[in-house]
Amino acid sequence: MEYIPRHMEERILELSQSYSAILVTGPRQAGKTTMLRSLAKKENRGRSYVTLDDLAARELAKNDPALFLQLHTPPVLIDEVQYAPELFTYIKIHIDENHTPGDFWMTGSQIFRLMRGVQESLAGRVALLHMSPLSQREIIGAPGAPFTVDFNRLLAESQTIPTVTTPKLFERIWQGSMPGLVSGQLPDRNIYYSSYLSTYVERDVRELSGSIDALKFNRFVTAAAARTSQLLNYKALADDAEIDVPTAKDWVNILETLGIIFLLHPYSNNVLKRTIKTPKLYFYDTGLVCYLTKWSSPEVAECGAMNGALLENFAVSEIIKSYQNAGLTPYLYFYRNRDAKEIDIVMEGDGRLWPMEIKKTVTPDRRLTRVFGVLEKASLPTGAGAILCMAEQFGAFDRKHLIVPIWMI
Fold first, then answer.
1. I need a surface site. Which of 216, 226, 293, 395 has the fewest CB within 10 A?
2. How far apart are CA 27 and CA 131, in angstroms?
3. Residue 52: is it exposed, middle or buried by C-beta count within 10 angstroms (0-12/13-18/19+)?
4. Where exactly does CATH 3.40.50.300 map onto the chain?
5. Cross-strand bridge partners of residue 34
6. What does pTM read for this prediction?
């Protein structure tokens, strides 16, 4: 199996020069361990490896963290560190005594619960990174950079990134972005996703919430997938899975904690008073959405009722990944007011708002940009806007309104 280099690698080596501890979180099977083990070979410091998926190692880490760190002396890579938060205090003591950059590399498959332990013990001593499944740029070997609506940069990049047709893009959306599938190591996509849900997700859900009805949870994840790119509606999800609304809220939190889904919050400020408050729900991996919603092939997905939602999910998750891979937090929102005026993405950065619409069209109409005008009342000035679409090449209506093919993100 060929290793696909990750855009986060340089950032990790860079942070290892100044931070004693680096923690990479993200969903299982996203490639965290593979990347760090590959980097450990390159840095050539004789870094040892231990995983807390191993029950004997986990028990020692929980019951005698000091002895665990004597056995596994830094530099060390500790996998699935969320299973033994007891280690964090001892890692802190080690860091405060030794101050050696890059001593601890750690991975965790749980994002928020893990953060609490980290923030209490390792505040200021650990660099936190979040890794999602592969981005389309990583898959094709293009250089990584946080996505921006910058005419000159997009023009330069449009000359180096190969054009992708709509059917080809839906192949990417349907296939998904899990390294095991993309690399061809695990050729059967259906078996991969069904075992991914039953082995990892269910097991980790039990870790986080105790007893759980696996059938209802599967129905719940499927209901969430059917509503991807839509406003989050706990009542509808609860009804579909035959659970109550508090359980639906818990399960949404758990899927977020495990890095399966993320929520995009509405943009609002004091001036834009009529905006709604409900977030939208997205999956990090569109392949999992297609599997759960039973689209049997890329062609069926492209023509089916969910094609717009799938395309929107893909575009939003690719933008998010481009920031995470650079070790940055994306300030990404959507806009919708009570008059049903909506902008799919509002990106905030450099004191400006950058509006974007996502459309499954090869030839976008200039009228699509009219909705960007609703942001004129916002307290921040508006930068260039973009229609993210299926165009065959990068273009523009004018300098303020760009046409950006989704295959370029």
1. 216
2. 8
3. buried
4. 9-130
5. none
6. 0.94
pLDDT for the residue 161: 95
* 236/216 Cα distance (integer angstroms): 14
Residue 351: other Cβ atoms inside 10 A: 8
Joined tokens for residue 386: 């973009």
- Rounded to the nearest integer, the mean pLDDT of the chain is 93
State the DSSP code for 351: T
Taking 80 as the threshold, does the pLDDT of residue 17 lie above it? yes
CATH homologous superfamily of 9-130 equals: P-loop containing nucleotide triphosphate hydrolases (3.40.50.300)
> Of the candidates 390, 400, 339, 384, which has an alpha carbon nearest to the alpha carbon of residue 364?
390
Check if the beta carbon of residue 220 is closer than 8 Å to that of residue 244. no
Residue 386: count other Cβ atoms within 10 Å of its Cβ: 28
Distance CA 54, CA 234 (A): 36
Over residues 192-221, mean pLDDT: 87
| DSSP secondary structure letter of residue 381 | P
Is 163:393 a contact under the CB 8 Å cutoff? Answer: yes
**Strand ranges inside 46-179, DSSP E:** 48-51, 76-79, 104-108, 126-130
Separation CA 10–CA 38 (nearest Å): 12
Percent pLDDT > 70 in the chain is: 97
Percent above pLDDT 90 for the chain: 80
CA nearest neighbour of 293 among 279, 280, 305: 305
pLDDT, tens digit, for every residue of 334-368?
A: 998 888 789 999 999 989 999 999 999 999 999 99
